[in-house]
Every structure is written in structure tokens, then in C-alpha cells.
Amino acid sequence: MTRTRGIHGWLSALAALALWEIVAQIYPNSFVIAGPLDVLRHMAENTGLLSRAVTATLHNAAWGFLWGNLGAIILSCTVILLPRSERTISLLALTVFCLPLVATGPILRVLYGPGNGPQIALAALAVYYTTYLALVVGLRAIPQNWSDLTRIYGRGRMTELFYIRARASLPYLIAGLQIAAPAAILGAMIGEFTGADRGLGVLTLRAMRSLDVDATWALASLAATVSILVYGIIGWIGRRLVAHPASILMTPPPVQGRENWSRSLGKAVALIALVLVLWHSVMDIFDLNRFFAKRPLDIWRYLTTNDEARSTLRTALTETSALTVPGYLAGLGLGAGLAILLTLVPALSATVLPAAIALRSVPIITTAPLIVLALGRGAAGTIIIVAVMIFFPTLIACLQGLRQTPGQIIDMFDSYAAGRLRLMRWARIPAMLPAFFASARMAIPAAFLAVTTTEWLATGKGIGNLMALTATTSNYNMLWSAIVVVTAAATLAYLVVERIERAILRVYASEQVQG
Amino acid sequence: MKLTRTPTRRSVLSTGAAALGAAAFVRPGLALANTPANLQLSWLHSVQFGGSYIAASNGYWADEGLDVTLTPGGPNAPVEPPVVSGTALVGISAADYTAAAVAEGAPFKIIAVAMQKNPFAIASLAANPVNSPAGLVGKKIGMSTNNTPVLQALCTLNNVDINEIEIVPTQYDAAPLVSGQVDCLLCWATDLPVAMTIQGVDNVTMLMADHGYSVYSQTYIATEDSIANRRAEIVGLLKGEVRGWNDYQKDTDAAAVLTVDMFPDAGLDLEAQKLQAERQLPLMFSDLTAAEGFGWFTEDGIAQNIETLALLGRQVTPALWDRSLLEEVHAV
Asked: What are the boundaries of the signal sequence (chain B) (predicted)?
């Protein structure tokens, strides 16, 4: 079994390489893609340079990975210990995750000065949110009777967190870390765009501008290979740690409480006030110059006195939303669909997963020209770029969710000789739902980031274009206005997804919606 | 001098000239006596800043009692925030960027001009060349939409209707031109065309500065506050720059070699750096700089800049420029 699986893996890897070479041959003089042979030659000729770059980027990615995931663990434990804080913490985490690179990059560079600070910070920012969401779901995935048992022994929430919840959350934590690995590497590379001496990101920029496709693709392959390795190592550790099959989580459905509208409104106002106060005071504490670090009042003044700016922003938001919604749904569908396919036909994993990790860990500036060349700059090309940028967390979270199908239930389906499709439909997909919704929430800010990046790289429209304009026009008022608008839109989308999620999970995974 | 990396033995040994400056770096005791100052570059390390590297490695800044750090830029590293914040004493910007920043409230002055001629160009393939602004009509041009005002200004200056040019938003990359997606590119004459030539792609560049586009580029900017309170340091920094760039003018190949040696991790290709170094020479040096010295600018030049900037939607006055520091530099 393992033997054939291994041969299968090698065969599909070879097939993928052959396919890659063929695609490279289709566009021979496009200067957009290089085949595996050219890539290998480039690697062999530049071993020293490339290994120094990999070391530099990995070093930053590793620190970012550590800090980001530590942050996620602290945030998610807080949410479990103080369930009332969940909404606030989740939305604050979302807000920070919505901050685009054009805004955070220069600020981090000013704060840290020359060195690795911004690269590490951006790698940490790239990972904390997905791990946090995955972990909150995992920490809740415990059978009711276990927590009853802790109570009977007179132990409190802390004991429950460390002895029961932490164990139950392991598979989710592993999935979170697997999602985080390529994200941290990509974050560190993009961090190098804020001005760095060395690293894979620096070399990628240089290679693209020098029309050196062999180098560009060698760098992309390196980033992808390293990501696949880290992903595999985390998965291997995960399989050592989580040997037991998932158990049935029997939790009684929660009592349907009526939402008090005036109270929710009050909470929303308080939350907005908190975000604004934090925004203002963080910038004041770090004494960031108002020229580029605009405060809430600056933006208020700018938007209330400037009709033209408002209408520019409105037009841009419309253009961006028109792409974000289909891109979001495409990415989510692609991720969940692939996860289901891979569970039904596990042999495909050896080909699909490495490709997925590769797509996730290669900067979009490398892949976008190829997608644009193949599909053009129209809606199709753009939506595919967006879907490619966001499907990965959904794929990994859903794969992990599908594996959470309780062993007893799988045994029962087996003993009735129910087919794989039935098992999928009636047992696995319901078990996947909590992870799926966590990934649906992860994908919201990711979709906005993806669309704004695509607008900057390929279409030259929308909010992404407005943000990119700051680089030449110093129009930081517009940049921060755009951030406010995107964050507000993402928060709204988050609340909508959360509402749908609660309605569905009440039925399928009520342990997730207690309290 | 101080760089953010330790020089390798090779870089110390290879250029005799580099040895002096590198020795100062290896013994931090010497460097400590000097006042630290940060020069924010506008892009990743390359021979684009060759004169600064010569100044660093020959100890021209140490002569002025300065310990200058050269901070690389990048696609997400605008020059203006660190200069406004005081993290960088001086930044390398361009007149149009500076004008925009000043309109947004940044207290900048342009204190010296490295590129007398703007490096923006229209690059096309030799088989389908664009040799004049009129030749743009009916063509597809690949560019960042950020630069639409630049193209608009060129069109206005040369009576071309911009609506007859098809703008295709692309990354800053020559691939769309080489693969035939567009007919020409709006880019710097010193980077993408150099890359194409090195890759063996025959290409033609039309420098916009030769068709009325007068915007000083690679300009040195500082805040009014720094000019008032750290004047001696800025003058010292400019002195080092002037000496470095004068050396550069004498031997651009040596500047390229030094750049590649100083930044072995930057993935620079020596031949490409040599070609780039040579191509940027006519943009930086002219009869004017021969007479008055590197970095010089005149009232006439300012007046032409003000005209072109107006076409870019920027209303500026001669008060944006301050030549007094440069006058001190060249007076000695």
C-alpha cells in the first residue's frame, strides 16, 4: 500500500514536471515561464547566491511564523477563557489583517529602520489570523461530557483548557500551522519589498526586471520547495501527535436566544469606538508622522470636506466589490471542492497538494504574468488570480475538517457497506462544516487583499489602484480612507458569514455555538 | 561608512579603492567617531547609486566626519515617510514625487539634482519602433496606471491625443513587450531596455526628456527642519556624493564592478550593471554640470520643471528648490 502510494507520488511528480516543461515549450520566447530543465541549470550555476537568499528569507519567515502563531495561540486561549471577548477579539484581529501592505510596509520600515524587522513583522501578520480562527474552532471541538467531567471534579476553565481543549485542538492547530508555513515565507518575501539587502524577494524583483525568466522560476521553485518541505514536516509531526481517530462530539443544541437589536447596535458602536481609539493611540504612542500615518480625525475631515474623494472612493469600491464576491466564492469553492475530491481520491494528493502549496508560496508577481498571458486581463483572468491567491487555507482547513469524521461513524457506514460518496455526503461533509466556516471567515480579508493586488498588477482599477497611487502621489489620506472602506466591507462580510455559520452549525456542530 | 552587511574578503581585496573604506568599517572604533546619517535610496541596490557606493568605499564621508548608512528602497518602500520622520537625513526622490508630497504637507526641499534629464522613456522593439511621440498613436502601451499623468503630459507637450493610445496596465516588467502583448512600454531608459539588450532583444528607446518632458529625477530631498538644524551634515553628505559621482563619471565600469562586489547577495549581473552605468551617464552629466559641478540646477531648469509639473497637475513655485547647500558644497 505504502509502496504503491510512493510510486504513485513519484509518477505524478514526474507528470507534473513534464507538464510544466510542455507549458514552458508552448510559450518559448514569452519571457514569462521557464521549464524545469532551465530552472535546474540556473540553480546549479548560482548555488551560493540562492542558498544565501533562502537562508535570509527562511530566517525571517521562521521568526515571523513563531511570533504570529504565538500571538494566535494567546488570542484564541483568551477567547476560550473569556467567551464574551470573542466578537471583539475576532473583529480586531480581522481589522489588523485587513491592513494592506502599502500602508504597513512604510510604517514598519520607519519603526524598525534598516534590517529584518519589517520582514519578520509582515511574516507574523501573514500567519496569525488563519491560525487564530482554526484554533478557536479546535479548542471548542470537545465532547460535552468531557467538560462535564472536569466540572464534576471541581476543576475550572484553566484545567479544561490545558488538559482537554488543548488536546482536542491539536489537529486544528496542525492544520493552522500548515496553512501558516507557506504564508510566512511569502510574508517574509513581500517584507523584503520594503527595502532589504538580500533574500528571495529581492532576487525575484531583480530577476523579473532583468527579464531573467530562468532566475524568476528558479526562485519560485525554491520558495515552493521549501514551503512544501515545511508543510510536510508539520504534517508528519501532526500525525505523530494525533494518533487517535476523532470522536463523536455530542453537544445539545443551544437554547435559541433572541437577539436584542438595540444591544447589538450598542456593541457595534462600542467596537467601532475601540478600533478608532486604538488606531489613534497606537500611532501617537509610536509618534508616527501625520504625513503618512493618518489619524481617524484626519480621515473624517478629508472625507467630509472632499466630495471628489468620496465619489472616487465609491466608484473604486464598486469596481472592487464586483470582483471580490465572485473571486471569494471561486476561491472558497475551489478549496472545498479540492478537499472533497482529495478525500474521495487520496491518490491525487501527491500531485495536487504540492501544486497547491506552490501556488500559495510563490509571490503573485511571478504567477500573475503567466495567468494574464494565458487568460488575458478580463474578468476570467482576474477571478482566477484571486481564487489562486485564496483557495489554499480553505483546502487545508477542509481537508482537516473532513478527517474529523468520528471513527465510530465511519465504522458504521462501512458495516452497512455504504459507498464513499454516501459517507462523504452524510458523515464527512457535516464533520467538515466547522473547519469550512472558519476558512470562509479566513478567506474574507484574503479575498480583498487578493483583489486589490490583482487590480494593481493587472487591471489598474478599483481600490487596489487607488492604494498603489499613494506610492507616487503621497496621497495618504486616500490610502487610509481606502483602508477604512475595505475594513468596513470585510467586517460586514464577516458578520454575514458568521450569521450563516451559526444558523448551520446550530444543527451540525452545536459545540461551536455554545454561549 | 557603514553598510547593512559585512564586506566579504573578496570585496575588500578586489578593489584597491574599496579597501580604504572597508577598513574603516572593520574597525568600528574609527566609525564611531563619525556622526551617523541615513541616506534613503529610491530603489534596491544597483549601479543606479554607483556614486554613493564610491563615496562610501573611498571614505569620502568619513572625511566629512560622517558615518553614512545607505538604506535600499523597494516597490513598497516610499522615500518620503522615512525622510519626513527624520529616520533618513536625505532621500533620493524625483521632482514630481516631491511636489506631490509637499502638496500633502511634507516640508521638503529639493537640494540637489542627480539626473538632469528625466529617465522616463518609451521602449519598443526594433522591429516595431516608436521613435517619436506621434508614433505612439494607435499603439498599445504597457505601463502602471499610476503613470497615466506622465503619458498625458508627454501627449500634451507634443500635441498627441492620449485617447488614441491604448493603455494596458502591466507590472513593471519587459515581458509583456517581448511576448507581444503590447507595442511599447513606459519605463526608465536605464533598466528594462538594458535588460532587453542584455537578453539579446533588439530595442529602441525614446527618451521623454528629448521631447519636452522636463522633470528632474534622482533628486536629493531633505526637510526644512533638517536643513536648518543639521545643515553641516547635509552639506558633508552632498560633498561625499559629489566626489563619488565625479569618480563615477571617470570610470563607469569601475563603479559597476564596485557595486557588484559590495552587494554579492543582490543578484546583480556585471554586464548589465556596466551597461546601465554607461546609459545613465548622459542623464546625469552635461555641459552644465561640467561648468558648475555635479547636482547643479538653474533657474531656467526650475522654470521648465514648473511647466511640466503643471501638466502633471502639480502647482509648484521655485521655493520647492533650495540650492544654497549645493552652493556651499561647490564653493570649497
From this structure: 1-33
* Number of structural domains in chain A: 1
**Given an 8 Å threshold on Cβ–Cβ distance, is B71 in contact with A114?**
yes
Per-residue pLDDT of chain A (515 residues; tens, 9 = 90+): 445 556 766 777 788 788 888 888 887 766 778 889 999 999 999 999 999 999 999 999 999 999 999 999 999 999 999 988 888 899 899 889 888 877 888 889 888 888 899 999 999 999 999 999 989 988 888 877 777 888 888 887 788 888 788 888 888 899 899 989 999 998 999 899 888 989 999 999 999 889 898 999 999 999 989 998 999 999 899 888 876 666 666 566 555 555 677 777 888 888 899 999 999 999 999 999 999 999 999 999 999 999 999 999 999 999 999 889 999 999 999 999 999 999 988 888 877 888 888 888 887 778 877 787 778 777 788 888 888 888 998 999 899 888 888 888 888 888 888 888 888 888 888 888 888 998 898 899 889 888 888 887 777 788 988 888 887 788 999 999 999 999 999 888 988 998 898 888 887 777 777 64
DSSP state of B146: G
What is the residue extent of each domain of chain B? Answer: 9-116+215-331, 120-211
Residues of chain B in contact with residue A202, where contact means CB-CB under 8 angstroms, are: 44, 74, 265-267
Sheet holding B203-207, edge to edge: B166-169, B140-143, B184-188, B120-125, B203-207
Report, at the CATH architecture level, how domain B9-116+215-331 is classified: 3-Layer(aba) Sandwich (3.40)
B37 beta partners: B68
Options 3.40.720.10, 3.40.190.10, 3.40.50.2300, 3.20.20.30; CATH of B120-211: 3.40.190.10
Half-sphere exposure of A12 (CA within 13 A, CB side): 15
Please report how the helices A101-112 and A462-473 are oriented relative to each other, as an axis angle in degrees rounded to 10.
30
SS3 A389: helix
Q: Write out the H or E segment, with its range, that includes residue A24.
A: helix A2-26
Structural domain boundaries, residue A498:
27-251+260-513
Contact predicate B239/B64, CB 8 Å: yes
Contact A206 B44 (CB under 8 A): yes
Instruction: Measure in Å the smallest separation between the Cα of A69 and chain B Cα atoms.
Output: 25
